[in-house]
Amino acid sequence: MAGSFADKPRISDVQGVLAHPDRFGVRYRDGDADAGCRELLLDAIPLGALADVVKTPTYVYGLAHVDRAIDDLAAALRGADAGICYAVKANDTHAVLRRMADRGVGADIVSGGELARAVRAGIAPDDIVFSGVGKRPDEIDAALGHGIASINVESGAELAVVAARARAAGLRARVSLRLNPEISADTHPYLATGLAEAKFGVPLDAAAPLAKRCLEDPHLELVGIACHIGSQIFDADPFVESVRSLARVVEELRALGASLRRFDLGGGFAIPYTGDQAPMDLDAWAAAVRPVAADLGLRLIVEPGRLLVGNAGVLLVRVLYCKDNGARRFVVVDGAMNDLIRPSLYDAYHMIVPTRLRQGAKDVTVDVVGPVCETGDFFALERSMPEVRPGDVLAVLSAGAYGATMASTYNTRPLSAEVVVEGERFAVCRRRQTLEALLARDVVDPVFEALPAT
Ligand code: LLP
Fold first, then answer.
1. Is it true that 13-62+310-439 and 63-306 share their CATH fold?
2. Fewer CB under 10 Å: which end of the chain, C or N?
3. Position in ligand 1 atom list of the atom nearest CA 270
4. Cα of 6 to ligand 1 centre, how many Å?
5. Which residues contact 327 (CB under 8 A, 6 or more apart)?
6. Which of 231, 265, 302 to mutate to test the pocket of ligand 1 (most atoms within 8 A of CB)?
7. Within 10 A of 49 (CB to CB), how many other CB atoms are there?
8. Contact 269/228 with Cβ under 8 angstroms?
9. Residue 110 near residue 140 (C-beta atoms within 8 A)
10. From ligand 1's centre to the CA of 450, what distance in Å?
11. Domain 63-306 has CATH 3.20.20.10
């Protein structure tokens, strides 16, 4: 598959930031040009100074950038009957969810945990949709209890469980059928969800039999159809293709007597990760899909994750050592694959720039690696960047989506702190995990017992 993931940009990361101030949430301070060193700002906060205070590794999110991303999408949808349900999995920090709630953005959740977070942040249940191929009965109960807008079911077996739980609770479950339009989008294979061999959704020809089951069951209300074809998709064509094939299914289900209201197109909108990638053309996307939803008289729902938060966040890491083994030069930093796994897992390109850019620093080609004991633990390979020294703080860009949410404690490394910035002020929005808290999960003196007699 053509991998826009591993493709190297034609310009250096620093050039990318200089050429596009704020596209990646950060800019170099203008007034510093004569000072010998330019500070990297996120909003009005110099990130090097912030790192000295909050320590590293730390994720930093700019809420103004989140606002801008919401505004851009809302502008593309203006005038349409449409709703935005933010995919919580991209970044589930309370402060970010709170901003979504304040802006009237709903949530796309994939677990009972995400449901609890969305509700705690004040997102209205009527603006919440529940996706995912493996919802547990207790998670379905919680969704029913809150009365969320739609449980997007992905199989006949799941539909049966939703119906049974709704009957037991004396409720009517609002469901959408998640269809798999069997469309190939140009993205990393792990992120393509709309192919025939993917585990997601049901084939288009399974829609009618499932819809009939909904129509026959008083505890099910079929409110819409849904799909999600993949993630980090720049091109509007696969979205348009899937809208068209879903539109045919809508006609088919209406002929059966279904009164559908919602047309959920999922997420997948791409963001730039390199200095020479332009942002996705949302207006072109909207111009192509809006008329189809409007003609059908359905409310268009989108579930963007990355688009709203990806470029709003950076991961700050500090250089521990510089080493040269003859074949390669390494910059060893204090963040690792457990903090940000995307480069290791998807070959993802994340720009990396110094938070203090020394004038005249010469470019060198390095591997930026972490302390984890795996060769796959890297943030960048053969990257040309200004020479750095131990103690320097680097910003790994475009880390606002699928960064902290995919972190682990591999190598007994506590989870990073997370910070939000507004103008000249910052707040820790998720505390760094303490080593004590991490160790406290272990039962150091386990008591063995027999299973209860059956
Ligand atoms: N809706 C559904 C049903 C999804 O499965 C996803 C993402 C989204 C919405 C949001 O997609 P987005 O707009 O963020 O592309 N960990 C990977 C991304 C996995 C996305 C999984 N599903 C990464 O780091 O690139």
1. no
2. C
3. 15
4. 18
5. none
6. 231
7. 13
8. no
9. no
10. 42
11. yes
Query: What pLDDT is recorded for position 390?
Result: 98
Give the pLDDT confidence score for residue 8 in this predicted structure: 84
From 129, 303, 379, 398, the mutation candidate for ligand 1 (largest count of ligand atoms within 8 A of CB) is: 303
The residues spanned by each domain of the chain are 13-62+310-439, 63-306
373 is known as an active-site residue: yes
Neighbouring residues of 86: CB distance < 8 A, sequence distance ≥ 6: 97, 100, 105, 106, 107, 108, 303, 304, 305, 308
- Kindly state the average pLDDT of the residues 235-262: 94
128 three-class SS? strand
Q: Which of 85, 322, 373, 429 is catalytic?
A: 373
Place 3 in a pLDDT band, splitting at 50, 70 and 90: very low
Domain 13-62+310-439 has CATH 3.60.20.20: no
Report which protein residue has its CA nearest ligand 1's atom 16: 402
Q: How far is the CA of 448 from the centre of ligand 1 (A)?
A: 41
Pick the atom of ligand 1 nearest to 406's CA. 16
Q: Is the pTM of this model over 0.85?
A: yes
| pLDDT, tens digit (0-9, with 9 covering 90-100), for 310-364 | 999 999 999 999 999 999 999 999 999 999 999 999 999 999 999 999 999 999 9
